[in-house]
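Most newcomers find our protein records easier to grasp once they have seen one. Each record describes a single protein and holds just a pair of labelled lines. A learned vocabulary of local backbone shapes supplies the integers on the structure line. Nothing more is needed to start thinking about how sequence determines fold. The record below serves as our worked example for the rest of this section.
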Amino acid sequence: MTTCGRPASQIMAFILMSSATLAVETPDSDGDSTLYALEVMFTIIFTIEVVVKVAAFGFVQHTNAYLRSAYNVVDFFVVVSSLLNLLITGVDLGALRWVARCKG
């Protein structure tokens, strides 16, 4: 986490808002475009945070590098998981289903 007060408190506010969004989400809200838009927005914000921190501290090699902090390792894992989730949910699997049906 950054040691500067303002960016750290802004990121913490985004984390709280993101957590509240997750708490509101239910299995019935699967196609809710507002929740999806918020998920995309928070993923972009947290991805920018990771990129800025990596640019400032380095990725792994330096003493104070980004992945040398346990908090940042968790942060990186969550961001990569969120990006993969958006990638997977954004892919139309209809073509793959068609190929599976034709194979068989």
Remarks:
- The first helix runs from residue 5 to 24.
- The radius of gyration is 18 Å.
